[in-house]
Amino acid sequence: LLHNYIAKHKGEMAVHDRDNYERRLRDYKSEIRQTRFLRDKEELTDRMLLTSIIHTWKEIKILREQQKYTNTPVKLQIRKQTTNKSEELEGWNFEIEEEIREEQERYEEEFMRKETVYKDQMEKYEKQTQAKEEARKRIAERNKQRKGSLSSKNSKVSKKSQETVKSKSAKEDEDESIEEENAMDQEIIDEEPMLKPDPPEPFDERALREQVMTKAKTQKRQPGEPKLFPEMSNTATVTPYSQCSRREQQRQDDVTKCKIYVKILFNGKEVSRTGPRPLLQDFSVSFGQIYNLKIVEWPESIKYEVYETTGFGSGRRLA
């Protein structure tokens, strides 16, 4: 809408207003591109995470089948939601065309900027090339004239011409002047040559379309593909202790012997700690305690340290 408004009322706007609208339009486009980028990135992250969750759950199911017992009630179910392929395909194509259009507009703006830089660099390159060529011609012309002058002078002297011969000092001044001019032109020739700039590449809609399509196929859910929602619950049946293998029984016994307690540190000093509580078979601990702490000043730090103990002693710090 803002783009259409600017195009419609461009002739009626003051330069300041037009620049302000165009700046706002550029900002809006930049925000839209950034939002789309973050959305696509987040969608890709979600798909990768879901794939990883499903893969891990399959490994857990295989392990449960192999060991023939289940020691945790965790259960993962994947709920599928069917989608309308024709509707999603329409929205899919619309988003692709919108992204292509925006990328084309951005490319055209960048192309104009690069073309301006290219013309400026090309002009400097051509000027330098022409200056070097003209300097070479001037040096060649001076050398040719000097050789011709010497040849003519020698001819006249040998024939004992009546014409006046230039004095030695005048000849030296002329040679010195020629050498100075040649040296100045040689400096132009010896200047570091500029690289011939390459013109900006024209817009390739086909390549851009392939790029956008490839990104959409790898990062987004395809039209008609069902939506997957993982749902975790604690409804799996845990195998009774007596039906587990001897090794699993020993592991559960070791877990039962393990106890957890927590230290509360205020500004790096221990002010309280919980009593040891047994670690349950689902690796959770229930303390069920409330601790009151009177604070006089705003603390620099409050930390909790988790310890594990299997008997007497201070225990081993876990976190």
TrEMBL record:
Residues 128-203, 213-232 are annotated as: Disordered. Residues 223-316 form the CC2D2A N-terminal C2 domain. Residues 172-192 have a biased composition (Acidic residues). One of its GO terms (cellular component) is ciliary transition zone. One of its GO terms (biological process) is protein localization to ciliary transition zone. It holds the Pfam family CC2D2AN-C2. It comes from the Eukaryota. Residues 128-143, 160-171, 193-203 have a biased composition (Basic and acidic residues). This is CC2D2A N-terminal C2 domain-containing protein. It comes from Arion vulgaris. The lineage of its organism: Eukaryota, Metazoa, Spiralia, Lophotrochozoa, Mollusca.
